[in-house]
């Protein structure tokens, strides 16, 4: 009986060790994947911010930046105390009411320590002044759309697209449907509803629209 008890206990121990080993292997794979994704995201982010790399000063002590595109925010303290540079710049951008904007504040350390409060005021204040004096441009958001159109309606369909100044118009005949092609394009957000109604009125009420 004693031998059997030891054998059963030993088996349970082996099972636990095997389970822990599998869990550890899974954890290692997850960490490796996370590191890979982080590196991939970082590389992608660098590619998406060529302007930041152009204006930064490699001789400066800190090149702190932040940007806002829609609901996406990014910032970097670049060696400053966490939260004293990037966040104040983001706050300045948010308060400006601007979108699709990036601010880079370059600091050359001159030997005077500003403290956390001083850094927040300095970076936030400079970003605010920069945004007030920077030139702005009105950008209308565009909506990607796709419509399945029969061949006999293409002439009327394209005339409507041209009248609404649709952009990036492309056509794909590989729809798997006889006599039907897919036309994709981009239209200003404030014109999307009017164009859809015009296409239904002048072409067909049975048009199938795809919006992204």
Automatic annotation (TrEMBL):
It holds the Pfam family Impact_N. The keyword Ribonucleoprotein applies. SUPFAM superfamilies: Ribosomal protein S5 domain 2-like. Belongs to the IMPACT family. GO terms for biological process: regulation of translational initiation. Keywords: Ribonucleoprotein, Ribosomal protein. Residues 50-131 form the Impact N-terminal domain. InterPro entries: Impact, Impact_N, Impact_N_sf, Ribosomal_Su5_D2-typ_SF. This is Ribosomal protein S5 domain 2-like superfamily protein. It comes from Artemisia annua. One of its GO terms (cellular component) is ribosome.
